[in-house]
From TrEMBL:
Role summary: May hydrolyze glucose-6-phosphate to glucose in the endoplasmic reticulum. May be responsible for glucose production through glycogenolysis and gluconeogenesis.
Catalysed reaction equations from the record: D-glucose 6-phosphate + H2O = D-glucose + phosphate
Gene Ontology terms: biological process: gluconeogenesis; glucose 6-phosphate metabolic process
Locations listed in the record: Endoplasmic reticulum membrane
InterPro entries listed in its UniProt record: PAP2/HPO, PAP2/HPO_sf
CDD domains, sorted: PAP2_glucose_6_phosphatase (cd03381)
Record SMART domains: acidPPc
First-tier enzyme category under EC: hydrolase
Superkingdom of this protein's organism: Eukaryota
Designated name of the protein: Glucose-6-phosphatase 2
Naturally occurring in which organism (per UniProt): Oncorhynchus kisutch
Main subcellular location: endoplasmic reticulum
Gene3D superfamilies: Phosphatidic acid phosphatase type 2/haloperoxidase
Residue spans crossing the bilayer: 203-222, 228-245, 257-276, 307-324, 369-394
Lineage: Eukaryota, Metazoa, Chordata, Craniata, Vertebrata
Amino acid sequence: MMVHLHIKKTALSLSLSLLKRERLMSTVQHCSCGQGSSCPSRARQTEPQMDLIHSSGVLVIQHLQSNYKDYHDFLDFMSSVGDPRNIFSLYFPLWFQLSQIVGTKMIWVAVIGDWFNLIFKWILFGQRPYWWVHETLFYQNNSLPQLEQFHITCETGPGSPSGHAMGSSCVWYVMITSALNFTRRLCDSSTQGCQRFGLVWSFLWMAFWIIQISVGISRIFIATHFPHQVILGVLAGILVAEAFEHVPSIHTASLKVYLHTSLFLFSFAVSLYLLLKMIDIDLLWSIPKAKKWCANPDWIHLDTTPFAGLVRNLGALFGLGLAINSQMFIQSCKVKNGYKTRFKLMCVAANLTSLQLYDFIKIPTHTEILFYTLSFCKSAAVPLSVVALIPYGVHLLIGDKERKLD
Protein backbone atom coordinates (compact mmCIF):
# COMPACT_ATOMS: atom_id res chain seq x y z
CA MET A 1 0.00 0.00 0.00
CA MET A 2 2.93 2.36 0.60
CA VAL A 3 3.82 2.09 -3.09
CA HIS A 4 0.29 3.03 -4.08
CA LEU A 5 0.14 6.00 -1.68
CA HIS A 6 3.59 7.25 -2.75
CA ILE A 7 2.57 7.27 -6.43
CA LYS A 8 -0.78 8.84 -5.60
CA LYS A 9 0.79 11.78 -3.74
CA THR A 10 3.20 12.46 -6.58
CA ALA A 11 0.43 12.27 -9.16
CA LEU A 12 -1.74 14.71 -7.20
CA SER A 13 1.10 17.23 -7.04
CA LEU A 14 1.49 16.91 -10.81
CA SER A 15 -2.20 17.61 -11.32
CA LEU A 16 -1.90 20.82 -9.27
CA SER A 17 0.98 21.98 -11.44
CA LEU A 18 -1.13 21.18 -14.49
CA LEU A 19 -3.93 23.43 -13.23
CA LYS A 20 -1.47 26.28 -12.77
CA ARG A 21 -0.20 25.76 -16.29
CA GLU A 22 -3.78 25.88 -17.56
CA ARG A 23 -4.09 29.54 -16.66
CA LEU A 24 -0.85 30.38 -18.42
CA MET A 25 -2.01 28.67 -21.60
CA SER A 26 -5.53 30.05 -21.93
CA THR A 27 -4.97 30.98 -25.54
CA VAL A 28 -3.97 27.40 -26.25
CA GLN A 29 -6.88 25.84 -24.44
CA HIS A 30 -9.69 27.80 -26.12
CA CYS A 31 -8.13 27.64 -29.60
CA SER A 32 -9.94 30.72 -30.80
CA CYS A 33 -7.85 30.71 -33.95
CA GLY A 34 -10.09 27.95 -35.30
CA GLN A 35 -7.29 25.61 -36.34
CA GLY A 36 -8.29 22.70 -34.13
CA SER A 37 -5.51 20.51 -32.90
CA SER A 38 -2.76 22.71 -34.33
CA CYS A 39 -3.55 25.54 -31.90
CA PRO A 40 -1.25 24.43 -29.04
CA SER A 41 1.84 24.76 -31.21
CA ARG A 42 0.70 28.01 -32.84
CA ALA A 43 0.13 29.70 -29.51
CA ARG A 44 3.38 28.46 -28.13
CA GLN A 45 5.30 29.66 -31.16
CA THR A 46 4.70 33.22 -29.98
CA GLU A 47 7.00 32.56 -27.01
CA PRO A 48 10.42 33.90 -28.03
CA GLN A 49 12.24 31.87 -25.37
CA MET A 50 10.97 28.54 -26.71
CA ASP A 51 11.55 29.66 -30.30
CA LEU A 52 15.16 30.39 -29.42
CA ILE A 53 15.59 27.03 -27.69
CA HIS A 54 13.95 25.17 -30.58
CA SER A 55 15.91 27.00 -33.27
CA SER A 56 19.16 26.34 -31.39
CA GLY A 57 18.19 22.68 -31.21
CA VAL A 58 17.58 22.64 -34.96
CA LEU A 59 21.13 23.92 -35.50
CA VAL A 60 22.44 21.05 -33.38
CA ILE A 61 20.39 18.54 -35.40
CA GLN A 62 21.65 19.96 -38.69
CA HIS A 63 25.24 19.80 -37.43
CA LEU A 64 24.84 16.15 -36.43
CA GLN A 65 23.14 15.16 -39.67
CA SER A 66 25.74 16.97 -41.78
CA ASN A 67 28.88 15.78 -40.02
CA TYR A 68 28.01 12.39 -38.53
CA LYS A 69 25.94 10.75 -41.24
CA ASP A 70 28.49 7.95 -41.54
CA TYR A 71 27.60 6.94 -37.97
CA HIS A 72 23.93 6.48 -38.80
CA ASP A 73 23.96 2.71 -38.19
CA PHE A 74 25.61 3.14 -34.78
CA LEU A 75 23.18 5.89 -33.77
CA ASP A 76 20.26 3.79 -34.96
CA PHE A 77 21.52 0.97 -32.75
CA MET A 78 21.90 3.29 -29.74
CA SER A 79 18.34 4.50 -30.25
CA SER A 80 17.19 0.90 -30.00
CA VAL A 81 19.28 0.50 -26.83
CA GLY A 82 17.18 3.26 -25.29
CA ASP A 83 13.88 1.85 -26.57
CA PRO A 84 11.66 1.20 -23.50
CA ARG A 85 10.37 -1.99 -25.13
CA ASN A 86 13.82 -3.58 -24.84
CA ILE A 87 13.55 -3.33 -21.07
CA PHE A 88 10.97 -6.11 -21.05
CA SER A 89 12.39 -8.23 -23.87
CA LEU A 90 16.11 -8.08 -23.02
CA TYR A 91 17.22 -6.40 -19.78
CA PHE A 92 14.51 -7.83 -17.53
CA PRO A 93 14.90 -11.52 -18.56
CA LEU A 94 18.65 -11.33 -17.96
CA TRP A 95 18.56 -9.52 -14.65
CA PHE A 96 15.65 -11.38 -13.09
CA GLN A 97 17.61 -14.62 -13.14
CA LEU A 98 20.69 -12.89 -11.73
CA SER A 99 18.68 -11.19 -8.99
CA GLN A 100 14.94 -11.29 -8.50
CA ILE A 101 15.18 -8.08 -6.45
CA VAL A 102 16.85 -6.19 -9.30
CA GLY A 103 14.50 -7.64 -11.92
CA THR A 104 11.43 -6.66 -9.91
CA LYS A 105 12.76 -3.16 -9.30
CA MET A 106 13.55 -2.80 -13.00
CA ILE A 107 9.93 -3.44 -14.01
CA TRP A 108 8.57 -1.03 -11.39
CA VAL A 109 11.02 1.70 -12.37
CA ALA A 110 10.35 1.23 -16.09
CA VAL A 111 6.56 1.27 -15.70
CA ILE A 112 6.32 4.17 -13.25
CA GLY A 113 8.99 6.11 -15.14
CA ASP A 114 7.16 5.73 -18.44
CA TRP A 115 3.87 6.67 -16.76
CA PHE A 116 5.40 9.89 -15.44
CA ASN A 117 6.86 10.48 -18.90
CA LEU A 118 3.33 10.31 -20.33
CA ILE A 119 1.98 12.76 -17.73
CA PHE A 120 4.88 15.15 -18.31
CA LYS A 121 4.33 15.02 -22.06
CA TRP A 122 0.66 15.85 -21.62
CA ILE A 123 1.54 18.78 -19.36
CA LEU A 124 4.47 20.23 -21.31
CA PHE A 125 3.04 19.97 -24.87
CA GLY A 126 6.57 19.52 -26.25
CA GLN A 127 7.14 19.96 -29.98
CA ARG A 128 9.18 17.60 -32.12
CA PRO A 129 11.79 18.98 -34.56
CA TYR A 130 10.54 17.17 -37.66
CA TRP A 131 7.17 18.94 -37.53
CA TRP A 132 8.14 22.15 -35.69
CA VAL A 133 10.31 23.43 -38.55
CA HIS A 134 7.29 23.27 -40.88
CA GLU A 135 4.79 24.98 -38.57
CA THR A 136 6.79 27.61 -36.73
CA LEU A 137 6.66 31.29 -37.69
CA PHE A 138 10.24 31.75 -36.52
CA TYR A 139 11.66 31.27 -40.02
CA GLN A 140 8.98 33.25 -41.86
CA ASN A 141 11.49 35.61 -43.49
CA ASN A 142 14.05 32.91 -44.24
CA SER A 143 14.11 29.53 -45.89
CA LEU A 144 13.05 26.62 -43.71
CA PRO A 145 15.87 24.44 -42.37
CA GLN A 146 16.01 21.01 -43.95
CA LEU A 147 15.94 18.12 -41.49
CA GLU A 148 16.37 14.58 -42.72
CA GLN A 149 13.91 12.00 -41.44
CA PHE A 150 14.51 8.30 -40.79
CA HIS A 151 12.33 5.23 -40.29
CA ILE A 152 12.25 5.81 -36.51
CA THR A 153 11.78 9.58 -36.64
CA CYS A 154 8.00 9.83 -36.71
CA GLU A 155 7.05 9.38 -33.06
CA THR A 156 3.42 10.43 -32.62
CA GLY A 157 3.38 11.65 -29.02
CA PRO A 158 4.51 15.03 -27.64
CA GLY A 159 8.27 15.45 -27.45
CA SER A 160 9.14 16.52 -23.91
CA PRO A 161 10.70 14.79 -22.09
CA SER A 162 12.31 12.15 -24.28
CA GLY A 163 10.85 8.74 -23.47
CA HIS A 164 13.88 6.88 -24.79
CA ALA A 165 16.28 9.01 -22.74
CA MET A 166 14.14 8.70 -19.62
CA GLY A 167 13.64 4.96 -19.98
CA SER A 168 17.30 4.37 -20.71
CA SER A 169 18.58 6.44 -17.79
CA CYS A 170 16.21 4.98 -15.20
CA VAL A 171 16.83 1.35 -16.15
CA TRP A 172 20.58 1.69 -16.62
CA TYR A 173 20.74 3.54 -13.29
CA VAL A 174 19.12 0.51 -11.66
CA MET A 175 21.55 -1.85 -13.39
CA ILE A 176 24.65 0.19 -12.51
CA THR A 177 23.73 0.74 -8.85
CA SER A 178 22.81 -2.94 -8.49
CA ALA A 179 26.11 -4.05 -10.02
CA LEU A 180 27.95 -1.74 -7.62
CA ASN A 181 26.05 -3.20 -4.68
CA PHE A 182 27.18 -6.68 -5.76
CA THR A 183 30.83 -5.58 -5.96
CA ARG A 184 30.82 -3.37 -2.86
CA ARG A 185 31.92 -6.30 -0.71
CA LEU A 186 35.35 -6.00 -2.35
CA CYS A 187 35.89 -2.87 -0.29
CA ASP A 188 35.27 -4.75 2.95
CA SER A 189 38.13 -7.18 2.48
CA SER A 190 41.25 -5.03 2.09
CA THR A 191 42.68 -1.73 0.91
CA GLN A 192 43.49 -3.32 -2.42
CA GLY A 193 39.88 -4.44 -2.65
CA CYS A 194 38.73 -0.86 -2.12
CA GLN A 195 40.99 0.29 -4.94
CA ARG A 196 39.49 -2.34 -7.23
CA PHE A 197 36.01 -1.25 -6.23
CA GLY A 198 36.97 2.34 -7.02
CA LEU A 199 38.05 1.29 -10.50
CA VAL A 200 34.84 -0.67 -11.01
CA TRP A 201 32.81 2.32 -9.76
CA SER A 202 34.56 4.68 -12.19
CA PHE A 203 34.24 2.28 -15.12
CA LEU A 204 30.53 1.58 -14.58
CA TRP A 205 29.53 5.22 -14.17
CA MET A 206 31.62 6.18 -17.18
CA ALA A 207 29.80 3.48 -19.17
CA PHE A 208 26.48 4.80 -17.86
CA TRP A 209 27.11 8.33 -19.11
CA ILE A 210 28.56 7.16 -22.43
CA ILE A 211 25.37 5.15 -23.04
CA GLN A 212 23.08 8.03 -22.02
CA ILE A 213 24.94 10.55 -24.17
CA SER A 214 24.92 8.16 -27.13
CA VAL A 215 21.19 7.46 -26.76
CA GLY A 216 20.52 11.20 -26.45
CA ILE A 217 22.58 12.06 -29.52
CA SER A 218 20.82 9.34 -31.50
CA ARG A 219 17.40 10.80 -30.66
CA ILE A 220 18.57 14.28 -31.65
CA PHE A 221 20.23 13.01 -34.84
CA ILE A 222 17.00 11.50 -36.19
CA ALA A 223 15.15 14.81 -35.53
CA THR A 224 12.62 13.32 -33.15
CA HIS A 225 13.80 15.32 -30.11
CA PHE A 226 15.37 18.65 -29.27
CA PRO A 227 18.49 18.56 -27.03
CA HIS A 228 16.71 20.05 -24.00
CA GLN A 229 14.07 17.29 -24.17
CA VAL A 230 16.76 14.63 -24.03
CA ILE A 231 18.49 16.27 -21.05
CA LEU A 232 15.18 16.54 -19.20
CA GLY A 233 14.47 12.88 -19.91
CA VAL A 234 17.83 11.69 -18.56
CA LEU A 235 17.47 13.70 -15.34
CA ALA A 236 13.85 12.63 -14.80
CA GLY A 237 14.78 8.98 -15.32
CA ILE A 238 17.56 9.16 -12.73
CA LEU A 239 15.18 10.76 -10.21
CA VAL A 240 12.59 8.00 -10.67
CA ALA A 241 15.20 5.26 -10.32
CA GLU A 242 16.71 6.86 -7.22
CA ALA A 243 13.25 7.21 -5.66
CA PHE A 244 12.72 3.45 -5.93
CA GLU A 245 15.94 2.85 -4.03
CA HIS A 246 13.88 3.95 -1.02
CA VAL A 247 10.71 1.91 -1.71
CA PRO A 248 11.58 -1.64 -0.54
CA SER A 249 7.90 -2.59 -0.25
CA ILE A 250 7.77 -3.41 -3.98
CA HIS A 251 9.68 -6.63 -3.30
CA THR A 252 6.97 -7.97 -1.00
CA ALA A 253 3.97 -6.57 -2.86
CA SER A 254 0.96 -8.85 -3.17
CA LEU A 255 -1.12 -9.36 -6.28
CA LYS A 256 -3.67 -6.98 -4.75
CA VAL A 257 -1.05 -4.20 -4.62
CA TYR A 258 -0.07 -4.82 -8.25
CA LEU A 259 -3.72 -4.78 -9.31
CA HIS A 260 -4.57 -1.62 -7.35
CA THR A 261 -1.47 0.18 -8.63
CA SER A 262 -2.24 -0.73 -12.24
CA LEU A 263 -5.85 0.40 -11.88
CA PHE A 264 -4.81 3.67 -10.26
CA LEU A 265 -2.25 4.49 -12.96
CA PHE A 266 -4.75 3.70 -15.71
CA SER A 267 -7.69 5.54 -14.13
CA PHE A 268 -5.60 8.63 -13.33
CA ALA A 269 -4.29 8.89 -16.90
CA VAL A 270 -7.70 8.30 -18.49
CA SER A 271 -9.43 10.69 -16.06
CA LEU A 272 -6.88 13.39 -16.82
CA TYR A 273 -7.38 12.85 -20.54
CA LEU A 274 -11.19 13.00 -20.30
CA LEU A 275 -11.16 15.98 -17.93
CA LEU A 276 -9.01 18.06 -20.24
CA LYS A 277 -10.99 16.93 -23.26
CA MET A 278 -14.14 18.30 -21.60
CA ILE A 279 -12.54 21.75 -21.51
CA ASP A 280 -11.41 21.52 -25.14
CA ILE A 281 -7.81 20.47 -24.57
CA ASP A 282 -6.88 17.73 -27.00
CA LEU A 283 -4.01 15.70 -25.54
CA LEU A 284 -3.70 13.81 -28.82
CA TRP A 285 -2.90 17.02 -30.73
CA SER A 286 0.49 15.66 -31.76
CA ILE A 287 -0.84 12.70 -33.77
CA PRO A 288 -2.24 14.79 -36.67
CA LYS A 289 1.06 16.71 -36.82
CA ALA A 290 3.03 13.48 -37.06
CA LYS A 291 0.78 12.18 -39.83
CA LYS A 292 0.98 15.49 -41.69
CA TRP A 293 4.73 16.06 -41.62
CA CYS A 294 6.19 12.56 -41.56
CA ALA A 295 8.11 12.01 -44.81
CA ASN A 296 6.81 8.46 -45.19
CA PRO A 297 3.34 7.36 -43.99
CA ASP A 298 4.71 3.85 -43.39
CA TRP A 299 6.87 5.27 -40.59
CA ILE A 300 3.78 6.15 -38.54
CA HIS A 301 3.07 3.38 -36.03
CA LEU A 302 0.15 3.06 -33.63
CA ASP A 303 2.42 1.61 -30.95
CA THR A 304 4.13 5.01 -30.53
CA THR A 305 0.92 6.75 -29.43
CA PRO A 306 0.60 7.78 -25.75
CA PHE A 307 -2.09 5.22 -24.87
CA ALA A 308 -0.17 2.39 -26.55
CA GLY A 309 2.74 2.96 -24.18
CA LEU A 310 0.37 3.18 -21.22
CA VAL A 311 -1.37 -0.16 -21.81
CA ARG A 312 1.93 -1.83 -22.69
CA ASN A 313 3.50 -0.83 -19.38
CA LEU A 314 0.45 -1.60 -17.27
CA GLY A 315 0.27 -5.01 -18.91
CA ALA A 316 3.88 -5.69 -17.91
CA LEU A 317 3.24 -4.60 -14.31
CA PHE A 318 0.10 -6.70 -14.00
CA GLY A 319 1.85 -9.68 -15.58
CA LEU A 320 4.72 -9.40 -13.10
CA GLY A 321 2.30 -9.26 -10.16
CA LEU A 322 0.42 -12.29 -11.46
CA ALA A 323 3.62 -14.25 -12.04
CA ILE A 324 5.51 -13.42 -8.87
CA ASN A 325 2.56 -14.41 -6.70
CA SER A 326 1.86 -17.65 -8.58
CA GLN A 327 2.48 -21.17 -7.35
CA MET A 328 4.58 -21.90 -10.45
CA PHE A 329 7.06 -19.19 -9.46
CA ILE A 330 7.14 -20.33 -5.84
CA GLN A 331 7.71 -23.98 -6.75
CA SER A 332 10.37 -23.31 -9.37
CA CYS A 333 12.32 -20.26 -8.14
CA LYS A 334 11.74 -20.14 -4.40
CA VAL A 335 13.14 -23.61 -3.74
CA LYS A 336 16.68 -24.92 -4.25
CA ASN A 337 16.46 -24.57 -8.04
CA GLY A 338 16.54 -20.79 -7.69
CA TYR A 339 20.16 -20.97 -6.58
CA LYS A 340 21.42 -23.43 -9.20
CA THR A 341 23.57 -21.94 -11.96
CA ARG A 342 22.38 -24.54 -14.46
CA PHE A 343 18.74 -23.71 -13.72
CA LYS A 344 19.35 -19.98 -14.18
CA LEU A 345 21.27 -20.41 -17.43
CA MET A 346 18.57 -22.65 -18.86
CA CYS A 347 15.91 -20.11 -17.87
CA VAL A 348 17.83 -17.22 -19.46
CA ALA A 349 18.35 -19.14 -22.70
CA ALA A 350 14.72 -20.25 -22.85
CA ASN A 351 13.46 -16.76 -21.99
CA LEU A 352 15.51 -14.96 -24.61
CA THR A 353 14.56 -17.51 -27.26
CA SER A 354 10.85 -17.39 -26.50
CA LEU A 355 10.78 -13.59 -26.31
CA GLN A 356 12.28 -13.39 -29.78
CA LEU A 357 9.25 -15.33 -30.96
CA TYR A 358 7.00 -12.67 -29.43
CA ASP A 359 8.26 -10.24 -32.07
CA PHE A 360 6.63 -12.38 -34.75
CA ILE A 361 3.23 -11.85 -33.13
CA LYS A 362 1.77 -8.92 -35.04
CA ILE A 363 -1.16 -7.16 -33.40
CA PRO A 364 -3.87 -5.90 -35.80
CA THR A 365 -4.09 -2.12 -35.91
CA HIS A 366 -7.36 -1.57 -37.80
CA THR A 367 -9.32 -1.22 -34.51
CA GLU A 368 -7.74 0.82 -31.72
CA ILE A 369 -9.61 -0.84 -28.84
CA LEU A 370 -8.62 -4.29 -30.10
CA PHE A 371 -5.04 -3.11 -30.57
CA TYR A 372 -4.80 -1.75 -27.01
CA THR A 373 -6.43 -4.86 -25.52
CA LEU A 374 -4.10 -7.25 -27.32
CA SER A 375 -1.09 -5.03 -26.50
CA PHE A 376 -1.98 -5.30 -22.82
CA CYS A 377 -2.26 -9.09 -23.05
CA LYS A 378 0.97 -9.44 -25.02
CA SER A 379 2.87 -7.28 -22.53
CA ALA A 380 1.43 -9.18 -19.56
CA ALA A 381 2.55 -12.45 -21.15
CA VAL A 382 6.22 -11.38 -21.15
CA PRO A 383 6.86 -11.23 -17.37
CA LEU A 384 4.42 -14.10 -16.86
CA SER A 385 6.58 -16.24 -19.14
CA VAL A 386 9.92 -14.99 -17.78
CA VAL A 387 9.01 -15.31 -14.10
CA ALA A 388 6.60 -18.25 -13.92
CA LEU A 389 5.86 -20.31 -17.03
CA ILE A 390 9.36 -20.90 -18.40
CA PRO A 391 11.10 -21.40 -15.00
CA TYR A 392 8.36 -23.86 -14.05
CA GLY A 393 8.89 -25.76 -17.29
CA VAL A 394 12.66 -25.85 -16.69
CA HIS A 395 11.99 -26.96 -13.10
CA LEU A 396 9.90 -29.90 -14.32
CA LEU A 397 12.52 -30.79 -16.93
CA ILE A 398 15.36 -30.80 -14.40
CA GLY A 399 13.22 -32.76 -11.95
CA ASP A 400 12.49 -35.46 -14.53
CA LYS A 401 16.20 -35.79 -15.39
CA GLU A 402 17.18 -36.04 -11.72
CA ARG A 403 14.56 -38.74 -11.09
CA LYS A 404 15.87 -40.73 -14.08
CA LEU A 405 19.42 -40.47 -12.74
CA ASP A 406 18.26 -41.71 -9.35
